[in-house]
Specification:
heterotrimer, A alpha+beta (177), B alpha+beta (245), C alpha/beta (546), A: 177 residues, alpha+beta, Glutaredoxin, four-stranded mixed sheet, 10% strand, elongated, B: 245 residues, Ubiquitin-like (UB roll), Alpha-Beta Plaits, 2 domains, five-stranded mixed sheet, two-stranded antiparallel ribbon, 9 strands, 13% strand, binds flavin mononucleotide, binds iron/sulfur cluster, binds FE2/S2 (inorganic) cluster
């Protein structure tokens, strides 16, 4: 059974080491701020995703231990909310807006173009780990529809062509270096 | 759990202050009841049958299956009998053509959601979903089947989890968390992708919190949770929370 | 620290005299939409240039949304009030230096533009004129005086009756009378009560609440504190989407400043009233806008609704009485107390008082954030304020209320925008998303879009919504692919009735609305997809080939 396989690293040991782990600083700080109350779960998961880019099983096990929450509850919350991801993100992030204004302005054709060219659907990352495609509901830039976020920059008035170009630039940049 | 049941029956029989009693009408019967009881328990106590699926005596009510919906005169919306308390003077109809028709469609939706082919199921003949469908006179499902094909978990030496037969009633989740105190199960993801899973979405045998008590198997209304080694129709569930009525 | 009225006035005066040092003010819009199209930090660039040129008499400050989002980045210059659009670094210098040789951005005179003259800002009163990150500027325009009045000079009952008399109704969608809601919470005997500000803004084409939070966060905090005093709550939560990082950051700044000034915390204005605020981040679930789901989410659970009653007013967070209002509802509170309920009740229609903020988007010339008196007609909004349909298109319908709402077709263009009128034609006011559609949109496709949204946002707790919306989506998908029969349409309508009548929460109960409303006004489009395998708008690609 799994517990045997992990015998060297009991939940307690692993939790103890994480309380001091600098990578877990944010996560620990949020839990402490909330007095380790169970209602801090969502805030803590946010901190974990900010720190690691995604929420791993190991992190969930740790949070469950520290907040005295059932493992299944932590997993349920992490998968109920679509903002959380359990998969490591790609190096670059393209968040396509699928809000009403962007949809009627043709966001779907952009999504199709990306899927065709790079073989990824929303929620997936290219096999080389370069690009993650995500979707969002309204970026609040409806006036510039269709809009998307490329890494951290919001861009508007997109067409399949200029989006593909942007993604290609990311790829080419890799080839250069 | 026993306490809770005791309280219920005691409440119904004695010790009600006159000002704590409400009068109501269910299906034409004039009744008096404790306002802390639900329409479902009141109806049951008077031999009025309201179908249920996610309700299980002894654990908290959920209100998810919508099979117990009833009509209350003057209320804009239908209400779930398992969670609705009586107000003074209300007139309840549990068998109006409208609610019967809705119940039928809801159960048909459930049957269209996943694979419910009874002829190969261990609970065939003892399944609450099957009974519900037959009581409601369902012979044909008007909606096309969605039938995702989900992996069966037979890793546990004593039990089997077949999500293809799950109706997401959450009875296993509640019985495990509220009675056994283990909280091994929970419903993960959401919407049509919802699934029952153990611990961190692990095979059952790896779920460290599971005590192996089997309460979830007994609580499950369908063949989604069953004991290993049963042939078709052999899985009978012991309702350890069986009601006295 | 606790503030006295004199100290509050002091802060205001100091700030005003600081502003008077400047003869000229350049306001740079720093709300999310304009920020997203600036080619670099405009405010910083302008401030740097001003320093280099030793232009001490000009103040350059970041402000909230200036309204005309499509024309961004926007910059306005005062005292003239000229509004410059599409300002980039190279053209911004011309505004600052007023040198004619430099390339100039195009200018708009707000006094002449119907976009601005038709509006009546109450909620957006400070939006675009104050720096949202400086509490002093909010205080200088009279901010937090209403809170002082409330705490020091008014009995909670007086506030309740003021709000009731104003006729204010909830701006989150359903339009429940705010005064009644507050009274219900105030009536409860509990010593522990909560106030929640619903800033989850889930409608996928709406950004009013976001703009208010980014442009004038203190107006929401003040409204919440007044509510806390009126209903007897000591703590509040602001539940805001994680997708709005800028709004979250400005809220955090605002709360910190208010705490520092003693406007939040213990013994506010030396009274016995305590009120603290906490921000809670959403995590991408539309259903968390629903009242019982928001409470579950704040408690750290999956956002699954539970049946009401009991209503949050009697049993909310941790079982305590809880007041839930929308961002815009709270932003209306301070003006009502300051200017009186009679003034507020004088705006709008018989049953819908005050103003409504709309996020105007889609196929309309001037998209952006607008605030108009209730009862303004749809025609005025789209053709006067919005400037008509973009690219010389023809108007087909306006969508209000997002996934819970419906479409308003051409024959109803003169409908007054108020709760009852919209409901009478099968739409809803919703939270204020208003998307204009032209001939290039297929109404079946629009219905499918919203149904897809509902299936992916359904929490999955109850059967009719979890499975029913999926079945409806399957039928709509079949129709758009030309593979449906007329009997499918019957099935679709039947499912609409089932899901609406038997779902547990508002999401499921309203999910059929976009379908019902498009069926009501555009049935011929459905028929044409089914019988002729033809999409009149040419959107559904698998059909047009035929
Ligand atoms: C599925 C669903 C989503 C909702 N989303 C929002 C929302 O994003 N913002 C909001 O203010 N209210 C939303 N509401 C309405 C709220 O439940 C609630 O009625 C409102 O916040 C009350 O505030 P008000 O009285 O000020 O309108 C939603 C309701 C439902 C059923
Ligand atoms: S496994 Fe059984 S008890 Fe659990 S949710 Fe599914 S049907 Fe209900
Ligand atoms: S109507 Fe939909 S969102 Fe609401 S409780 Fe039911 S499944 Fe969940
Ligand atoms: S719909 Fe895409 S930004 Fe609003
Ligand atoms: S038994 Fe009442 S909703 Fe399921």
């Amino acid at each position: 059974m799994q517990t045997n396989a992990e015998a060297v690293d009991t939940p307690l040991d692993s939790a103890l080491s994480k309380t001091k782990d600098p990578q877990y600083r944010m996560v620990n700080r949020i839990m402490c701020l909330h007095n380790y109350q169970p209602d801090a779960l969502i805030e803590t998961l946010h901190a974990a995703q900010d720190s690691f880019g995604c929420i791993t099983l190991e992190t969930m096990r740790y949070i469950s231990h520290m907040l005295h929450l059932p493992l299944s509850r932590v997993y349920a919350v992490a998968t109920f909310y679509h903002y959380f991801t359990l998969k490591p993100p790609g190096k670059h992030r393209c968040v396509l807006c699928m809000g009403t204004a962007c949809y009627i302005a043709g966001a779907e054709s952009i999504e199709k173009a990306i899927t065709e060219k790079h073989h990824i659907s929303p929620g997936e990352t290219t096999s080389d780990g370069e690009i993650s495609l995500l979707t969002a509901r309204c970026l609040g830039s409806c006036g510039l529809a269709p809009a998307a976020i490329f890494d951290d920059k919001v861009m508007g008035q997109l067409t399949p062509k200029n989006v593909l170009k942007q993604l290609q630039d990311w790829r080419d940049h890799v080839a250069d270096t | 759990m026993t306490d809770h049941r005791l309280q219920n029956s005691v409440r119904q029989r004695h010790s009600l202050h006159p000002e704590d009693i409400v009068t109501l009408v269910i299906d034409g019967q004039q009744l008096t009841a404790d306002p802390n009881d639900t329409l479902l328990t009141i109806a049951q106590a008077h031999n009025i049958h309201i179908p249920t699926l996610c309700f299980l005596e002894g654990i908290s009510a959920y209100g998810g299956c919508r099979v117990c919906l009833v009509e209350v005169e003057g209320y804009g919306k239908l209400v779930p009998a398992c969670l609705t308390h009586p107000a003074e003077g209300i007139i309840v109809r549990t068998q109006s053509p409208r609610v019967i028709e809705y119940r039928k469609k809801i159960v048909e939706l459930l049957l269209s959601e996943r694979n419910h082919i009874c002829s190969v199921c261990v609970t065939n003949g003892h399944c609450e979903l099957q009974q519900l469908a037959s009581t409601l006179g369902i012979t044909h499902i008007r909606y096309p089947g969605l039938f995702p094909s989900l992996a069966i978990d037979a890793s546990n030496t004593r039990f089997i989890h077949d999500p293809n037969r799950c109706v997401l009633c959450s009875r296993c989740v509640r019985v495990c968390a509220e009675i056994e105190g283990a909280h091994t199960w929970d419903i993960i993801h959401r919407g049509i992708k919802s699934r029952v899973s153990a611990d961190l979405n692990q095979p059952w045998k790896e779920a460290v919190t599971c005590t192996g008590c089997g309460k979830c198997v007994q609580a499950c209304p369908t063949g989604a949770l069953s004991e290993q080694g049963k042939a078709v129709g052999e899985m009978l569930k012991k309702r350890y929370t069986e009601s006295t009525t | 620290m606790s503030l006295t009225l004199e100290e509050l006035n002091d802060i205001a005066e100091k700030e005003l005299s600081r502003q008077q040092q400047f003869s000229r003010q350049i306001r740079v819009c720093c709300a999310a939409s304009c920020l997203s199209c600036q080619d670099a930090d405009l405010t910083q660039q302008l401030q740097q240039t001003a320093r280099q040129q030793a232009m001490g008499e000009t103040e350059i400050k970041p402000v909230g949304c200036l309204g005309l989002c499509k024309e961004g980045p926007l910059v306005s210059v005062h005292p003239e009030g000229t509004l410059y659009s599409h300002v980039q670094i190279n053209t911004s210098k011309a505004i600052l230096l007023s040198e004619s040789s430099l390339p100039r951005p195009s200018a708009i005179d707000p006094g002449q533009s119907l976009f601005f003259t038709r509006q009546n800002p109450i909620v957006l009163r400070n939006s675009g004129s104050i720096n949202p990150e400086r509490i002093e500027e909010y205080i200088a325009v009279g901010g937090y005086k209403a809170l002082y009045q409330a705490i020091r000079n008014m009995h909670p009952g007086e506030i309740l009756s003021q709000i009731q008399q104003s006729g204010l109704r909830g701006r989150g969608g359903a339009g429940y009378p705010t005064g009644l809601k507050w009274s219900a919470v105030a009536k409860t005997k509990s010593t522990q009560k909560y106030v929640i500000c619903n800033a989850d803004e889930g409608d996928p084409g709406a950004f009013m609440d976001r703009s208010v939070l980014e442009s004038d966060p203190h107006s929401v905090l003040e409204g919440m504190a007044i509510a806390g005093y009126a209903v007897g709550a000591q703590a509040g939560y602001i539940y805001v989407r994680a997708e709005y990082p800028l709004a979250v950051q400005r809220l955090r700044t605002a709360i910190r400043q208010a705490e520092k000034f003693g406007l939040l915390g213990n013994n506010i204005f030396n009274s016995s009233f305590h009120f603290s605020l906490t921000i809670r981040l959403g995590a991408g679930a539309f259903v968390c806008g629903e009242e019982t789901a928001i409470i579950a989410s704040i408690e750290g659970l999956p956002g699954k609704p539970r049946p009401r009653p009991p209503y949050p007013a009697t049993s909310g967070i941790k079982g305590c009485p809880t007041l839930i209002n929308n961002v815009e509802t709270f932003a209306n509170i301070s003006p009502i107390l300051t200017r009186g309920s009679a003034w507020f009740a004088g705006i709008g229609t018989d049953k819908s008082k005050g103003t409504k903020v709309f996020a105007l988007a889609g196929r309309v010339k001037r998209t952006g954030l607008i605030e108009v008196p209730m009862g303004t007609t749809l025609r005025e909004i789209i053709f006067d304020i919005g400037g008509g349909i973009s690219d010389n298109g023809t108007f087909k319908a306006a969508q209000t209320g997002g996934p819970s709402g419906g479409c308003i077709p051409k024959q109803h263009l003169d409908i007054p925008m108020d709760y009852e009128s919209l409901a009478s034609i099968g739409s809803i006011m919703g939270s204020g998303g208003l998307i204009v559609l032209d001939q290039s949109s297929c109404m079946v496709d629009v219905a499918k879009f919203f149904m897809e949204f509902c299936t992916s946002e359904s929490c999955g707790k109850c059967v009719p919504c979890r499975v029913g919306t999926m079945q409806m989506y399957t039928i709509l998908d079949k129709i758009t692919r030309g593979q449906a029969q007329l009997s499918d349409l019957e099935q679709l309508e039947d499912l609409c009735d089932l899901v609406r009548s038997t779902s547990l929460c508002g999401l499921g109960q309203t999910a059929p609305n976009p379908v019902l409303s498009t069926l009501r006004f555009f049935r011929d489009e459905y028929i044409s997809h089914i019988q002729d395998q033809h999409c009149p708008a040419g959107v559904c690609s698998l059909l047009t080939g035929k």
